[in-house]
Input
Amino acid sequence: MTSITFLGAAQTVTGSKYLLDTGTAKILIDAGLFQGLKELRERNWQDLPIKASEIDAIVLTHAHLDHCGYLPRVVKQGFTGRIFCTAGTKDLCSLVLPDSGHIQEEDAANANRYNYSRHAPALPLYTEADAFRTLELFQPVGYDRPMPLPGGIELDFLSAGHLLGSAYARIKVDGKTILFGGDLGRFGRPVLPDPTMVEAADYLLVESTYGNRVHEEDDSGERLAGLIRDTAGRGGKMIIPAFAIGRVEELIYWIKRLEDEKRIPVLPVFVDSPMAVAALARYTERVRELDPELQPEAVDEVAPHGPAANEPRERRRRHAKEERDVCVFCTDRFRTIGGAQESKELTASKMPAIVISASGMATGGRVLHHLKAALPHARNTVLFAGFQAAGTRGRRLVDGETSVKIHGEMIPVHAQVEKIDSMSAHADSKEILHWLRGFKAAPKRTFLVHGEPDAMQALQAKISTELGWTTHAPAWQERVDLE
Output
């Protein structure tokens, strides 16, 4: 009998992993890192309940670490099959996985140098070399293109609107259709297209990150504009911890729009994250996969004037493309930060500016240096624009702690700390229900995943009350047979 074992994102928002066992093939859908609380992070070191060499294939929904960050560990343990994903997901994984391996090695080296590990020697979960070996196994697949998997399984990807390349994985086996939802994007948001509506599935996995809330109404960026104006008026910096993959693009979109509409002063906007800069380039390269608002206009719709009138059509097209490549995510005073020295100079500068840096939950990366310098001063603002998992430094700041530990030092919090939920890339309860109503018939069972217990329970109640569907919130490592 076909079964699903929930190896992650089961009553938590991290570590997405689902093992589909058909009796003739074993397919792992997503292989994410556990993040946040120590008890969750320790699960990363536990072996899967199946040998990696026995997994026939891996299907990947998108490139966030809580969905892809465990892949090099699986490869290190002996997986040699193919990893199926969209082309956009492969592009972004080529950035995040080697970086993750490098961080794992750095963490182990620091633990050995300062002797704070219980293990001697401390070892990385995996290395940068493991990540590069993993990338060799990637098999990109276009949206809406059925692909055969081992064991007579058919896979196709549907756009999820959550991240460049993000997808639902629709798997057909033994007459059953199973839809692995990954993370569900939002409707009517900039940068990314709306999630694809789906009409039918026998079994459904759907995220519940924001199952107990409704995001702030879209105010056309007015709250962000007000925070920027207030910070500039105090002569301060705005520090925005942002997820390097995905969130940076929307932040810059809004700042650019507010500048163009003359609703904020034109400030220097710095992106201090090498990965975020590289991701911006990937988004620009795949601009045709983004929201129609960002699509390049046809250069021949209006007859050119002046010197351009004599320019051959193909040259005009090339020039239009070059301009778009530079400016699709550029503000008036946009600048990227390269090396560590430039980052240190920016941290030390007291010039009013907007600094966007990773990580999004303030758990590591260059943003910690900016926070360490900015938090003690009331003129500054720290703005969070995404989900903050329990146990993270970002969550503690949002919850109002008056001091936080950074690099072993307690830093007082006098800066203004704010959070904007309207930029979340995760659907809220209202949007999830809207997407579910696209089904012409209820799935036999709907599994709620990728959410904390309160959010899951709230969404479960809404689905039961408003749709009358049968739902289940699986426990970690629970196995469910699909009849």
Observations:
- The two ends are 7 Å apart (CA to CA).
- The chain has a mean pLDDT of 91.
- The longest helix spans residues 87-114.
- The first strand starts at residue 3 and ends at 6.
